[in-house]
Amino acid sequence: MKSKYISFALFLLVLLSLWSCDNSDTKKIVGKWQLREYTFGNDITIKSDSVFYNFQKGSFSAICILEDSEYATFFGNYFLQDDKISIILLSDYHGPVYDKYIGWEDCQRIFNIDKLTSNSMILNYNDTLSVFRKY
Question: Domains plus CATH for the chain?
Fold first, then answer.
């Protein structure tokens, strides 16, 4: 009888270990990410440190620190499917701040996820790489 309890306890321990090690993209992407650079298809790299993407339960926000230390925030939703992420902004944003920091046509974008770990992410749109670090 004692061996049944030990076997059951070991089974539960293994099950809990497997469950807590879930490294799915859904869990990895949650949180705040700082954009570090854009790399264009012609190997031109532009450094960045003033744009932050936030992902939480399907909600998306981009916080952009402006040159005058003010900030602009853009809100939307995101959807993961296989190795892609679709981000759709909730409002029809326009203007120089949006164009400089986000600039997506139709206020939406579908990225390929080239890399996603617990501390780094690379999103690819038309051979332009957006490189992020977990913040």
Answer: 23-134 (2.40.128.280)
